Amino acid sequence: MVKLIEDQIHQFFINKEEERCLLLEQQYNNNEKTKNKKYKRKKITKPWKRPGPNALCKKNDLLILVKDYDYNLLDKDFQEYCFARGYLHIPGEIGSRRWEYFLKYNKSKSEYMNDHYFQFAQEVNDKCYKYTNKDMELWWKIIELGQAKLQDCWELFRK
Asked: Which of 32, 60, 61, 156 is most buried, most CB within 10 Å of its CB?
């Protein structure tokens, strides 16, 4: 079982604060007067908590920080719940290549970037557009965001 999404988001900001302070402490160590001085960490409060027992997170800038998932997209009841909440469209058509990246959320970014299927747009008028690396990066972010949204939905479904 993974941490709740609000805890994952909170931990991200705690880690960022720790990184910031460690960098400052490294700078302190370069000066004899401040050598071995510890930098005071800021208290990090949770940036988001569920406002109600059935509320989904709508803040994409926070959801994109969620990286651990345990949702079960094969669970028919969960599929129905996602449909009712308006989230079943996220992974696309059941059994599609896109669906597979949501079903197997441990698939890596490099697998996605190297997947020939996702490198080209749908053919129109006998022409096929190849996505740029920037396009592919954006599409990967959309998959990560979709996975986080499904994890958010899963948390509510399990209650």
From this structure: 156
